[in-house]
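HUMAN:
Just now I want nothing more than another pair of eyes on a protein record. I would be glad if you read both lines and explained how they fit together. I have put the entry right below:
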Amino acid sequence: MLNAEAAGLLSLAASLGDRFDHAIDSLHAATGRVVVSGMGKSGLVGRKIAATLASTGTPALFVHPAEASHGDLGMVVPGDAVLALSNSGETAELADLVAHTRRFGLPLVAITAREESALAKAADVALILPKAAEACPMGLAPTTSTTMQLALGDAIAVALLTRRGFTAADFRQIHPGGRLGARLRRVRDLMHTGDAMPLARPDLPMDAALVRMTEKRFGCLGIVHEDGRLLGIVTDGDLRRAMGPDLLRRPAGEIMTPSPRTIGPDALAAEALHAMNAHERPITTLFVVNPAGHPLGILHLHDLLRAGLA
């Protein structure tokens, strides 16, 4: 079954051409919303396409074609574009919606498997699904055809996202909740600042440095130059490597690991998690620095855990 659907998707990918570009042009030019409609299984797919469009920067809604005939056509107004789904292209319930687009000159993009169908002929742009066997052993239940519809809807959403220049920052504005929202939070939203940062000059003796590390409870100490730049970091691992009878008398600058991993305040929280785990030896703390290398804050793995990211 999966092989049949995969074959359909490969065939669909090979069939996309200028029509797809024209469809994107038409939908992108709409000053209103993309109104998605379809009946039955096509309608269920259409609901998902509308949700994906809306969540990626293209205002969209789903209108049920039967309800459209009983007043919901009022939802479809000048400036909107319509994306209609029907595998056969002959879905009777779509007739009033199609007529509405023709009456008011609204762009109509169709997704159908039959180029000679009424829907395809009425549309400004018809995206034709290639012939592909349904995965259903009887060849009746919409399976491969709906998978192709869904994939084509995703392709449209991603193409419009790219055309609009939709960014991760934009994505965060409309995905504030859940783990996805956490991944899109900025480091500056989670970092500890000011006196909370464990910082010291390189000439600080290690006995005093250990007291400061313990007070700040991050398990590390940032070593800063007199001009404020971050020079290095002292961690528990550095202490173990430097263990000896003179450890407490040595200056922190001799114990530190120079040029530690850092991150900028505008980086995404997901990027901070990646930076912590990117090397063979994962770390649990990142200093947040400005372009000049001055510490602005500190971020711990526990901050990402509390935010729901890790």
Notes: DSSP finds 15 helices and twelve strands in the chain. Residues 2-166 form a domain with the Rossmann fold fold (CATH 3.40.50.10490). The radius of gyration is 29 Å. The CA atoms of residues 201 and 224 lie 5 Å apart.
